[in-house]
Amino acid sequence: MNLADSGILSAAMEKSGYKSVAEPEEAGVIILNTCSVRENAEERALGRLAELAHLKKKSETYICVVGCMAQRMGESLLQRVPAIDFVLGTERLFELPALLDAKNGEPVVDTTMGKDLAWAELPPVPDNPYMGQIIITRGCNNFCAYCIVPYLRGRERHRSPEAIIADVNHLVSLGVLEIMLVGQNVNSYRWRDGVRFPELLSLVARETDIRRIRFITSHPKDLSDDLIARFGDEPKLMANLHLPLQSGSDRILKHMLRSYTYAQFRNRVELLRQVCPDIALTTDLIVGYPTETEEEFEMTLAAARDIRFDSAFMFHYSEREGTLAARSQVDDIPEEVKLRRLQTLINLQKGISYSANQREVGKVHQVLIDGTSRRDDRIWKGKTEGNKTVLIRDDRDLLGRIVPVRVTLADSWTLHGEAL
User: Fold this and answer.
1) Do 62 and 160 share a domain, yes or no?
2) 191 near 198, Cβ under 8 Å?
3) Total domain count, the chain
4) For residue 375, what is the domain's CATH number?
5) Could you give the CA distance from residue 362 to residue 409 in angstroms, rounded to a whole number?
6) Which range of residues forms the domain containing residue 271?
7) Which of 53, 215, 332, 410 is most buried, by the most CB atoms less than 10 A from its CB?
8) Are residues 265 and 202 part of one domain?
9) Burial zone of 106 (CB within 10 Å; 0-12 exposed, 13-18 middle, 19+ buried)
């Protein structure tokens, strides 16, 4: 979502005459688009702001903080980092170009919510020349107990199929081959003429020339049979799904207000694998949630062994001020216990991911080559249908192509292969 928002804000800035530069030292405007899902994300942003503050002493540089952390902290950000010129919340960040034109020297703080903006009318700018994000919904109606997002991004608002298709066609015209349809919960998408998310996927596939389609993120309670069926009958839909489980304990899931049991989650996974046997499944897992016992933590380990996700984003519980969990549940698990549980889970998942990737060795995948390795620019980097990273050593110019690649080697995180 932040990549998509940044692309839209880039479009708005460029439309107003601004041009991007490579280094902060060259910039007249520096924008940090921030996240508040985890405390660590905010600490990283504050650390980066402290690093950038020195640029204010050398030039007429504006420092702008936008997005979720700006929405949550508001005016208090100026007390933490006096060098900030703009603090714009999740529904105000796209007004930055107009606010820059009207700047009068005083810091601007605007975290007002409840008004849809013209962001939906701005064409998206892909963060990668061959892969782009398109927002189909903003906000969330689920209010999971631990999650700050609904309070910072508001209730769900859905875009029309026509607007979404127009954005896809725009990205295709720029050379984009793969899109990610983005929302806090894409599964709940619906439009007034009866178009729900499965129908939207079919419309995008049928009415545009995009080559590959992905989406994120899905709530398990809204993963319908119709949506699962699309993984079997829509060739443009890539064989991967991010499906956050969070915990293997039904009691903890109930405390989290996740609206499903582990058995119901497992049923969705079984149906997915029947429809699309090669689907790569990823997930989110939280350990150390308030009142979680050792037995309930073991249930999460058992769930990871049972389902065998290809990979997982794993966290220990981080209390977020303003959430239901922070208001009603005592964060009673000691930090050292959280960290021990997290490391145990990471070690388990690392082995599962290694085994999953070993099964890829010898297989041929259609890989979108979107860049080069960060460590060696002579090695091409791409994504399989299952969204796994593949590194390929090849003297040909493969950039921006979808090529067949045989996997020859794998570790827990990366595949290595040869282009055929």
Assistant:
1) no
2) no
3) 3
4) 2.40.50.140
5) 8
6) 118-358
7) 215
8) yes
9) exposed
CATH of the domain at 55: 3.40.50.12160
Query: How many whole angstroms separate alpha carbon 371 and alpha carbon 379?
Result: 9
Residue whose C-alpha is closest to residue 7's, from 90, 89, 125: 125
Helix (H) or strand (E) holding 303, with range, is: helix 294-307
Provide φ and ψ at 88, rounded to 5°.
Answer: -125, 125
pLDDT in tens, the chain (420 residues): 888 899 889 888 998 999 999 999 999 999 999 999 888 899 999 999 999 988 877 678 999 999 999 999 999 999 999 999 999 999 899 899 999 988 888 899 999 987 655 566 778 888 789 999 999 998 999 999 999 999 999 899 899 999 999 999 999 999 999 999 999 999 999 998 889 999 999 999 999 999 999 999 999 999 999 999 999 999 999 999 999 999 999 999 999 999 999 999 999 999 999 999 999 999 999 999 999 999 999 999 999 999 999 999 999 999 999 999 999 999 999 999 999 999 999 999 999 999 999 999 999 999 999 999 999 989 999 999 999 999 999 999 999 999 999 999 999 999 999 999
What is the pTM for the complete model shown? 0.92
Nearest to 292 by CA among 323, 239, 248, 226: 248
What's the per-residue H, E or C state across 319-365? CCCCCHHHHHCCCCCCHHHHHHHHHHHHHHHHHHHHHHHHCCCCCEE
d(C-alpha 403, C-alpha 401), whole Å = 6
Tell me how many degrees the CA angle 169-364-382 measures, rounded to the nearest 5.
Answer: 50
The number of angstroms, rounded, from the C-alpha of 191 to the middle of its chain's C-alpha atoms is 23
Instruction: Please state the length of the chain.
Output: 420
Q: Work out whether strand 402-410 and strand 415-419 pair parallel, antiparallel, or are unpaired.
A: antiparallel
Same domain, 130 and 270: yes
Residue labelled with tokens 């050292």? 336
How far apart are alpha carbons 188 and 121 in whole angstroms? 22
